[in-house]
Amino acid sequence: MLKGGAKVDSFEVRLFDVDFDELTVILNVNDAAALRVNVGDRVKIRFGQKEANARVSLSRTYVGKGEVGVCRGLRDVLGLTEGERIVLEPVMFPRSSEYIHKKMRGEELSAGEIRSIIRDIARRELSRVEVAAFVLAEQFKGMTDSEIESLTLAMIESGERIEFKERAFDKHSIGGVPGNKVSLLIVPIVAASGLLIPKTSSKAITSPSGTADTMEVLAPVNFKAEEFKEIAERTRGIIAWGGSLNIVPTDDLIIRVEHPLMIDPVPQMIASILAKKVAVGIDNMVLDIPIGEGCKTRDEEEARNLAVKFIKIARKLGIKMQCGITYGGQPVGHTIGPALEAKEALEALAGKGPLSLVEKSTALAGMILEMGEAAMAGRGQEVAREILRSGRALSKMREIIEAQGGDSRVKPSDIPLGSHVTTVNAESDGYVVRVDNEAIKLVARAAGAPVDKGAGVILRFKRGYKVSRGDTLMEIYSERESRLSKAAALAAELVPVQIEGMLLGKI
Amino acid sequence: MLKGGAKVDSFEVRLFDVDFDELTVILNVNDAAALRVNVGDRVKIRFGQKEANARVSLSRTYVGKGEVGVCRGLRDVLGLTEGERIVLEPVMFPRSSEYIHKKMRGEELSAGEIRSIIRDIARRELSRVEVAAFVLAEQFKGMTDSEIESLTLAMIESGERIEFKERAFDKHSIGGVPGNKVSLLIVPIVAASGLLIPKTSSKAITSPSGTADTMEVLAPVNFKAEEFKEIAERTRGIIAWGGSLNIVPTDDLIIRVEHPLMIDPVPQMIASILAKKVAVGIDNMVLDIPIGEGCKTRDEEEARNLAVKFIKIARKLGIKMQCGITYGGQPVGHTIGPALEAKEALEALAGKGPLSLVEKSTALAGMILEMGEAAMAGRGQEVAREILRSGRALSKMREIIEAQGGDSRVKPSDIPLGSHVTTVNAESDGYVVRVDNEAIKLVARAAGAPVDKGAGVILRFKRGYKVSRGDTLMEIYSERESRLSKAAALAAELVPVQIEGMLLGKI
Q1: Among candidate residues B274, B332, B320, B328, the one with its CA nearest the CA of residue B302
Q2: Would you call A16 an interface residue with chain B, using a CB distance cutoff of 8 Å?
Q3: What's the burial of A4, exposed, middle or buried (CB within 10 Å: 0-12/13-18/19+)?
Q4: Taking CB atoms and an 8 Å limit, are A18 and B136 in contact across chains?
Q5: What 3-state DSSP class applies to A90?
Q6: A78 Cβ partners below 8 Å, 6+ apart?
Q7: Any CB–CB contact under 8 A between A128 and chain B?
């Protein structure tokens, strides 16, 4: 039974050009038995001074004894090449998994413990299951303000940072409302006033279009940190994709587990938003908190509580914040989907925008103008409207599009929309009593948004409008026939625009 | 921008002989883009009438366009061979993930919802992250008795069932105490009385030896359902590994996420234990609930509450249950590790066992004898002691060992122990004030248990014993020199056996 002291621990690298959701190695079953590891266990890999953890998968034939299959991610982390030798050993749980366990018990974590968790998420030393446990513990047990502050600071440490020599302003929405293209108006309005507004935005995860997706219809949005800074300082405004800047890379790793769990715990949401803002040097910002059906906050009280929490933690991190509570019970403007929204934003900048879009954009822009003393107290929205009306916002937007590498002469009619179109018509006379945010998002996504830029939805009627039988309630755009029919079927099932007659009963 | 209606959805199978922790496919990056899936997303695979879900990984080179790499697990589930064509489509979250979300919000689940979750875990349609969320929601939000009953029934549905024509008895411990080899005494005592005791047991996950690991030193423990039934009926007793019977396969999938999270939520523990018992046809059982430092239940009140819950749910499932609350603050007997424990159990059957082992075993066996009317009320332990003393338990054990395919003539001294041995000696005179369960487990595992059968620990002194400087407190056995030195170093660091002098202070 005695096997002697022989210890197999050095393995020959076989590169394996596949990307997995976690760093992965493939071991021969015999080597795995000798190392006492099984499928799904974790091993520590050492290569010179570098170390990483990976998940174990097993093969009888794909790798021989003494070999180890190395996935792309791990190759990149350690800088490995074919045939090199690496050292493997089974890992116990990292210390940080104890801290996650502590949070699961509802105890408060110290700054050091939170830093250890975030660092191990960034290094991919914690598995997806452990990251999920951390996020769920945040959801179920909550976090104190000081824990959220530590979480924010820890997340910032994991990525690059940008600093400006002057005050930098920003607007951010906590999200949930479809068609919310307001940033495409707010950024040029604020920049036209002379204030600096270096906006980072996200691509859609569950929505039909993130601000970065919409802006990308007009100009590139991927920039390195230095380019971002240079463009922002030169034009006073930029709308870039945050993901391209390598700020707060742990955010993406955390979102990857939040998404399948359909959760967005408040402490993580606050930390994630503030970390990205601090990392790009924002020190003054307006936060848009939409309320209403389908929004993250349901009523004004919840929104106010969230606002107070946000403002308090932002202040500790050196950000002066104001919150705007807005109506989010139906889409902003009439369009949903990247190209349709970019088109509507351009039209609004040219003075032909729908009221809800112009009102929301100028209200939030006005708050920023007041914060930056570019407008007197109480006069912000008025100044913002004037910047819009005068055409200065449109010229500034053209300047920004040009600086980001787009076509500054673009006209709304130049923007290509999906060529497959269908309409949903009213089946009776009546009033629109509900426009269902969730249903609209699902229909627009089924049509192909955000990946197909030209896909999406135009709402011809919104809440309170009077409609007659046969009126077109909404148009669905798609780039492919097959997606169009899926979206149309979904619209028939979900009834995103609901009508009620004046006659409510008959005896 | 229009791509036309072409839809790539049929792919050619490239078998890939690797086992992952989830069913996995490898797609070419271009195909993945066309399907709108990314690394870590899930796809549904159809092959004839069969369906399965798998996680997506990506490659530029390993699989070509139109090909799909298929891992071993998926090949087995669908019965695929090289070159066959399968259909892929992105999956939305399965309906059951909504029910998990409902539990996360703290709402009660219906029997149908729970069945849907367990079925999707069994089919591997839920990812590990989603299974983790379910188990964490059980931990944080709890479950009603009727939810636990539904959970138990759903788990039974997922596997095979065994039925006996007569009453079947069992003893189960909720675990946590090292050295708990009592089943190796209880099964032969009860079987010798004529009652049927078909015991399924587990292999160690976090402990140095599960009952199945210990029994495996004496005889094989892997049986198919029919063999299990045949042996049990013939000899009246068997000690088999539950994992070999394919009863309650979802249990293993759930344990795989509980383990890294270091949790064992009460609802899941109850359902998991009862499901396995119902599945093998048990209708009378004694549950051992140890209390004390390092046990799952800390005090008598917690143990009583757990007992009441267990008994109530067991009754609904047709199991008559009694609970024994036992002292678990230090190991049972003197040995920890498969071979050492098997040896000590054989010695105890031959009348030379330590008091703690004999007392606990006869007390629990006595409860079963009373339940089965093989002893009068209040006389069970006495009858159990007599069966042990008379040698009938030992002959029955030899019969069981023989029936399971082991050597019925085995003597304790035949059992091979690790040949590398070291001792931990007392550094001062005094009394043993603490034997640390957790530390003992870690040292025994570091020495190689449970994989190295001969590895483990002998405790020469237990709580309350008087020791003199230089006495051997514990011996560590290992099959490899390198593991022995690791275990010895750990013992020096953790001090599993703590001594305090009589002189507590000096002024």
Answers
A1: B328
A2: yes
A3: exposed
A4: no
A5: strand
A6: A45, A47, A50, A52, A86
A7: yes
Q: Looking at chain A, which residue has its C-alpha nearest residue B253? A: A40
Dist. CA A30–CA A66, nearest whole Å: 9
Helix, strand, or coil (residue B35): helix
Active site residues of B: 264
**Per-residue pLDDT in tens (0 to 9) along chain A, 507 residues:** 333 333 447 999 999 989 888 899 999 999 988 888 888 888 989 998 888 889 999 999 889 999 999 999 899 989 999 999 999 988 767 789 889 999 998 999 999 999 999 999 988 888 888 999 999 999 999 999 999 999 999 999 988 899 999 999 999 999 889 999 999 999 999 999 999 999 999 888 778 999 999 999 999 999 999 999 999 999 999 999 998 898 998 998 898 888 888 888 999 999 999 999 999 999 999 999 999 887 888 888 999 999 999 999 999 999 999 999 999 989 999 999 999 999 999 999 999 999 999 999 999 999 999 999 999 999 999 999 999 999 999 999 999 999 999 999 999 999 999 999 999 999 888 899 899 998 999 999 999 999 899 999 999 999 888 999 999 999 999 999 989 999 999 999 888 998 886 554 455
Give the separation between CA A66 and CA B243, rounded to whole angstroms: 30
Whole-prediction pTM: 0.80
Q: Does B433 touch chain A (CB under 8 A)?
A: no
Structural domains in chain A plus CATH codes? 10-90 (2.40.40.20), 95-142 (1.20.970.10), 169-244+260-412 (3.40.1030.10), 420-500 (3.90.1170.30)
Interface contacts A/B by beta carbons within 8 Å: 142
In the block, tokens 């989603």 appear at: B130
CA dist., res. B31 & res. B37, Å (int): 9
Q: What is the DSSP string of A129-149?
A: HHHHHHHHHHHHH---HHHHH
| Helix, strand, or coil (residue B130) | helix
Identify whether A450 is preceded by a cis peptide bond (ω within 30 of 0). yes
Angstrom distance (rounded) from CA B65 to CA B59:
10
Contact across the interface for A260 and B97, Cβ inside 8 Å: yes
A 350-389: CB under 8 A from B: none
Please report the sign of the dihedral spanned by the C-alpha atoms of residue A475, residue A479, residue A484, residue A490.
negative
Nearest-by-CA chain A residue for B37: A451
Give the ipTM of the model, two decimals please.
Answer: 0.73
Which residue, B321, B347, B338, B384, is CA-closest to B186? B384
**d(C-alpha A504, C-alpha B64), whole Å:** 60
Selection from B328, B376, B336 nearest residue B356 by Cα: B328
Question: Is B164 exposed, middle or buried (CB count within 10 Å of its CB: 0-12, 13-18, 19+)?
Answer: middle
User: Residue written as tokens 């059980």?
Assistant: B138
Cβ-defined contact of B479 to A2 (cutoff 8 Å): yes
Task: Tokens for A193, please give them.
Answer: 């006033």
A17 interfacial to chain B (CB closer than 8 Å): yes
Give CA–CA dist B106/B440, Å, rounded.
38
Residues of B in Cβ contact (< 8 Å) with A262? 93, 97, 101
Is the separation of the CB atoms in B447 and B455 below 8 Å?
Answer: yes
User: Which A-chain residues 244-283 have CB contacts (< 8 A) with chain B?
Assistant: 256-257, 260-263
- Across the interface, do B55 and A17 touch by the CB < 8 Å criterion? no
Give the helix ranges, DSSP H, for B57-182: 72-78, 95-104, 111-122, 128-141, 145-157
Contact assignment for A1 to B69 by CB distance below 8 Å: no
Alpha-carbon span A125 to A140, nearest angstrom: 24
Q: Which amino acid is at B325?
A: I
Looking only at the bridges linking them, the beta strands covering B67-71 and B50-59 are unpaired
C-alpha triplet B72, B76, B82: angle, nearest 5°: 70
What gap in Å lies between CA B186 and CA A280, rounded to an integer? 67
